[in-house]
Each structure stands twice: as C-alpha cells, then as structure tokens.
Amino acid sequence: MVWDAAGRDIARAEIKFDEAVTSWPTGELVQALKNGDIAIYFRGYKANEGIIEADVRSVSAEQLHIIFSRIQALLSGGKRA
C-alpha cells in the first residue's frame, strides 16, 4: 500500500511489474486491462517504471479476483492491446 502523493487520505494498492520477466511493457498491460470485456482501470502515472496503482477502497473480494484473473491471463499469453 502507498499513500496518495498529493497528501490526500487515500491509500492505494501498488503493483510492480518486471518487464524483463513479464515481456509486457506496463503501459501496454494497462491499456489491455482497459480494453477487456470488463474495463479495469489503474493509475498508470508510473507505468514507465513498471508500477501501477489502484484505489481499492470500494472494491469487493469478487472484483479483486476478477482483476487478478485478468492480469494472470494477460501475463500467461493473453491478447495484447
């Protein structure tokens, strides 16, 4: 978890990707998540560093599983953006 850089009382989940391992540019992964059957949006301000952030305050366990499954599918050879 990381706190909002602007000082707001918002904690976000931060996910770091090693592009050498995933073979996916992080910005491309963010776009693929947006363009899926279910649009999944992440803050991509640090995508060039392999980092994305998500505000998960109102995300249910079921929604977290959908997000996990979609990322897993993409990293396992899913369709690119």
Brief rundown of the structure:
The chain has one domain (2-75). The protein is 35% helix and 15% strand. The chain contains three helices and three strands.
Structural class comes to alpha+beta
Give the number of DSSP strands.
Answer: 3
> What is the number of helical segments per DSSP (H or I, 4+ residues)?
3
Strand coverage percent: 5-15%
Mean pLDDT value: 88
Please, what is the oligomeric state? single chain
Helix content: 25-40%
Number of domains: 1
N-to-C terminal Cα separation, in Å?
27 Å
Task: Give Rg in angstroms.
Answer: 13 Å
Instruction: Report the order of strands and helices.
Output: EEHHEH
Largest β sheet strand count, sense and barrel closure = 3 strands, antiparallel
Q: Enumerate the spans where pLDDT stays under 50 for 5 or more consecutive residues.
A: none
- Neighbour order of strands in the largest sheet: 1-2-3
The dominant shape is globular
